[in-house]
Amino acid sequence: xxxxxxxxxxxxxxTSVFIPDLYSQKVENLGENVNTDIDELxxxxxxxxxxxxxxxxxxxxxxxxxxxxxxxxxxxxxYCNTAKKLKLPFSRPDTKCQxxxxxxxxxxxxxALNEKDxxxxxxxxxxxxxxxxxxxxxxxxxxxxxxxxxGDTKNWGVHLAENGKILFIYKSVSKDNPFNExxxxxxxxxxxxxxxxxxxxxxxxxxxxxxxxxxxxxPDDVTLFFASDRKGGFGSSDLxxxxxxxNSWLRWSDPVNLGELINSDEWExxxxxxxxxxxxxxxxxxxxxxxxxxxxxxxxxxxxxxPIVVVTGKISDAKNSELIPAEIxxxxxTDRTHKYYAKFYPEKxxxxxxVPGGKKYKLKVTSPGYINYTGTVDYLSVNTYKEIKxxxxxxxxxxxxAVEEPEVITLDNIYFDFGKSDIKxxxxxxxxxxxxxxxxxxxxxxxxxxxxxxVGSDDYNLKLxxxxxxxxxxxxxxxxxxxxRLTAKGFGSSKPVADNNTEQGRQKNRRVxxxxxx
Length: 518
Hints:
- This protein is mostly beta strands.
- The protein folds into 3 domains: 2-299, Tachylectin-2, Chain A, CATH 2.115.10; 308-394, Immunoglobulin-like, CATH 2.60.40.10; 402-517, CATH 3.30.1330.60.
- The chain has 6 helices and 34 strands.
- A 5-stranded mixed sheet has the order 6-7-8-11-15, with no helix packed on it. It has a 4-stranded antiparallel sheet with strand order 1-23-22-21, with no helix packed on it.
- The longest helix has 22 residues, at 2-23.
- It is elongated and about 90 Å long.
- The two termini are 51 Å apart.
């Protein structure tokens, strides 16, 4: 109850500040470089602020509305250059495909719809990276029971929140009922999103023909903008905003109309805030070059939903300064319910992450084979848009540092002749690493385990594996390691890690492992 009252009071403060300041801004048409005599819809700005993605829609006799994806390069002054048609990874002429979001790591979220296919085929959401020479292979975004959820409707759309963990979806009730409702889905793990749940309250008010659509979550993770043709608006569709009341993401305050600066007696929709928080974009049919056009207005810090911090940087190897792939996370240090993630790809030279200001965060950087970087960053005093750069160098793990608790680790590149226990010379470099490890860490012991595949009898394999484990022990002793720090045990074929019915599986099962005992 106390949290709900607090959210409500914040909402009253927000609306009393946001709307008057919003009225004071000048709205501008993006001009003929972007807008034409047909519909321009669904603006999306890339995370670096350098690209505007949008769609053009026109009616063709016998085909209905045909949509094409376009983009415009934005220069340092905010000027939009002449738009170009976007070549998308789905090349089929009967497939509608558009950019619906761009993630912090530069991944592009694509929505694909083909009226001749089922939802189990090409229809759905995808992640892909755009490069100068094309796209990488699109990776499907898996949403639990998405096919059943969408049903037979051909009218749906999505918005991925800045944090990359919340997905808003709107869809019409059915192909015969154009009324739209807004839903939310949560990232459950790296590969699966939860089944969409409908937002409650007056967000999905049963009023109008089109209903409620085109949601956009501000970078504060609290303020939701959307379009609706509900009663009481200025035109055929207006833009509204509301505030999240709790962490269920289902309860929202009563929507507030954005007013006459944005809304007119025409159609308005597709509100979008640029990632740097400097501009608000929307689509309107008022005072246009043709049909619906894309407009924008400049934000003032006083009416930003909440100040944001744009964190950029690169991750490198502390020893040689080479860039390395890594994952970066910011977790709220107070409630631990808000987490923000980004991935760093060396070829992209920079990661980018947007977090709300006014908070402390626990920063964590991880990369396979490297010691995690952790720290606390304090943005409590941030009350306006801010850019901060972090270049972080990670130290490579030694074998001991890689093991926090005793665990079994497989030794790569240990080779024996077929059916024998003699160690081949090409195995020496790998074993020499263990020698160095033991010399540098006099307080540890290791257990050596050897395994075989299932070719041969159990008794034969057990004896062979024991002999191989002892050969490894003997090599370490011959290089100066005390035998009292070592034990050797063979398991034969009793502990496979892969399928013995394939050569690849048998190769994985023929292995030597060790366990560090600190």
